[in-house]
Write a structure and sequence with these properties.
186 residues; 9 helices
Length: 186
């Protein structure tokens, strides 16, 4: 079933929209949540919460891409759970590893959550990603947006784990240089 048809079902309050969304995207959104949380049971809860959020936001929202819309919802709910779990001293291992890697690119004194220029940083990262070859951009986003383990990225794209690691390291270094040129480092 096409995304526009599923969105129309949501707008008509047809409960089949939930089953069609689950059928089309259930495994993928579950995997995004599992990558972030490192836990299948929690990922099931996140998937269900995301479907309920989808039900409550369409309408009034009318997303252009159903997958992108639900993926962002899943990611945000999973990160909220990570923050709550961190307060309880539990944290998804993949998230911590990926954040440690990514922190190499961001100035050490930069507080992303509290910084008034976080939108500017986000814009600069988006601009930087637009300069990358498609393969590097995909690997970078799979790792740092979807929190996919390096081995899973390698398997998914049929490349060597070391190639993925090298691509990520080089991309992080290029991002660091880009951010320095834009004044994010002193």
């Amino acid at each position: 079933m096409e995304d526009n048809d599923i969105i129309t079902e949501f707008e008509q309050r047809n409960e089949d929209a939930l089953s069609h969304t689950t059928e089309k995207y259930g495994k993928t959104i579950h995997k995004i949540a599992e990558n972030i949380l490192g836990n299948t049971h929690d990922a099931d809860e996140i998937r269900n919460d995301a479907l309920m959020k989808l039900w409550s936001t369409i309408p009034p929202q009318h997303p252009r891409s159903l997958f992108a819309y639900i993926a962002v919802i899943v990611r945000n709910i999973a990160y909220d759970k990570c923050r709550a779990d961190k307060r309880k001293k539990r944290y998804g291992e993949q998230v911590q590893i990926a954040l440690d890697e990514f922190s190499e690119c961001i100035p050490s004194d930069f507080d992303v959550e509290g910084h008034t220029d976080s939108r500017q940083l986000s814009s600069e990262i988006q601009a930087f990603l637009g300069t990358l070859p498609q393969s590097s951009r995909i690997i970078f986003l799979q790792r740092y947006w979807a929190m996919m383990p390096v081995a899973d990225i390698a398997e998914k794209y049929g490349i060597n784990v070391n190639t993925v690691k090298t691509t990520l390291r080089r991309t992080r270094e290029k991002l660091r240089i880009h951010l320095a040129k834009e004044g994010f480092y002193e």
